[in-house]
Amino acid sequence: MPWRGVFQRYVLKCPVTEAGVSRRTYTHEASLYVHWPYCLKRCSYCNFNKYIPRSVDHVLMTQSLQRETQTLLHISQVSCITSVFFGGGTPSLAQPSTIAAVLETVSKHAQFSANAEVTLEVNPTPAGKARLRDFVAAGVNRFSIGMQSLNDSSLRVLGRDHSPQEALQTLSEARTLCPGRVSVDVMFGLPDQSEDSWQSELEEVLSVCDDHVSLYQLTLERGTHLFKQVQLGEVHVPGDDVTATMYKTARNILKKAGFLQYEVSNFARNNAVSTHNIGYWKAQQYIGVGPGAHGRFVPHSLQGVLREARTQTLEPDVWIREVQQHGHATRRQIQLSHLELLEEVLVMGLRMNEGISHQHWAEFSPEANLHQVFGVSEDFQQLQQRGHLILDDGGLRCSWEGLALLDSILPMLLLRLEMFFKKPAASAATAGRTHGQRKR
Ligand SMILES: C[S@@+](CC[C@H](N)C(=O)[O-])C[C@H]1O[C@@H](n2cnc3c(N)ncnc32)[C@H](O)[C@@H]1O
Ligand code: SF4
């Protein structure tokens, strides 16, 4: 495979985690997210942190991304990077030398784990297309293509600057360069989309796609052009019952085509799962570099186990200035409490079909297991009886039906978690005894 040879120059295997070390105290590993904030054009539905500049100073951006990567690696206790994701914005508009420079910086100040996944989000615009080969030469070994739709009029109402043909061409090129490691983003619930048109569109996508599909239900974001158009009645979007059916249909079609739904919105065959995203869902540490990027890691200064949620400055020019002055542009830095960390473990973990194993939960909550925290609650037992949630030797997870209802299930679980960890010491001790009797 072409990507292996090129990437080999960065790969130095990270030290293996010592057996028995809890994930909470195991702070030398993380994934890296790098945000490229620029786009060619504003899509009508998008409220991501992106800017449409007249020109981009690629040299300055490269230097700033390198500097912030280096600083955050030093601030953290991270010596091993398990995956890198270049997202945006439109990172396929960055120069391949920028991608190479950031990877080079990582390899100077940390190690990569063996075969670390390096993903680049690609917009199928003519401007980004010609460079896919150069991105592979820079160290990218996985592409995530923002196809969104194969319907011309949907692409127009979404304000996309590419045609279905351009998306197909980019996909085919990416598949040639990174076979088995190309994902497509597809949206549903689009203006004027019917259940039938969605079904045939998805079937068309499946006839051309590689081994990974991410499905996104359109969210009407306040402040976007599309939101206004829908408010004014100029554009019509399908109702909730229709989008629920669309999601159900898509899951069945993807299943028939041999795709495993490994997360609420993500489907893979031939085990082509995204290890970077699995890191988020398993609440592993990640470092976020670039304007508006988010991170979750334990900094050196805390000399302990408390994780911080960090957000970098949003606006690129201000971000660059702050990186020049301080080496990084962390705008917000909040220490996560034990309860907040467990909330993340729960909310993210239940998005995966495999859910949260007992071992995974124990890494974050050695003091109380899943049975103690959730199993005794009546509401929880009702959800189990309805077949939406499963708690057994494999851990806690949603059933196939439950995964589609996760948003309505989570509030009860979060409440239960909060009640458990905020309860007075006396009742916690009682719960401990109940737990003891279970012999778990
Ligand atoms: C962060 S965006 C950036 C990707 C890339 N710039 C592009 O547009 O193809 C990643 C994905 O989020 C999804 N997305 C963005 N805004 C959305 C919205 N309002 N509703 C649903 N999905 C959205 C799109 O499918 C998109 O591919
Ligand atoms: S959807 Fe992607 S390309 Fe469009 S404005 Fe948002 S980040 Fe940029």
TrEMBL record:
SMART domains: Elp3 (SM00729)
Molecular function terms from GO: 4 iron, 4 sulfur cluster binding; coproporphyrinogen oxidase activity; metal ion binding
Gene Ontology cellular component terms for the protein in this record: mitochondrion
Keywords: 4Fe-4S, Chaperone, Heme, Iron, Iron-sulfur, Metal-binding, Mitochondrion, S-adenosyl-L-methionine, Transit peptide
Domain called Radical SAM core: residue spans: 24-260
Compartments (UniProt record): Mitochondrion
Record-linked Gene3D superfamilies: Aldolase class I (3.20.20.70)
Main location class: mitochondrion
Alphabetized InterPro entries for the sequence: Aldolase_TIM (IPR013785), Coproporphyrinogen-III_oxidase (IPR034505), Elp3/MiaA/NifB-like_rSAM (IPR006638), HemN_C (IPR010723), HemW-like (IPR004559), rSAM (IPR007197), rSAM_sf (IPR058240)
Any one of the GO BP annotations: porphyrin-containing compound biosynthetic process
CDD domains, per the entry: Radical_SAM
Function as written in the Swiss-Prot or TrEMBL entry: May be a heme chaperone, appears to bind heme. Homologous bacterial proteins do not have oxygen-independent coproporphyrinogen-III oxidase activity. Binds 1 [4Fe-4S] cluster. The cluster is coordinated with 3 cysteines and an exchangeable S-adenosyl-L-methionine.
Family listed: Belongs to the anaerobic coproporphyrinogen-III oxidase family. HemW subfamily.
The protein, known as: Radical S-adenosyl methionine domain-containing protein
Lineage of producing organism: Eukaryota, Metazoa, Chordata, Craniata, Vertebrata
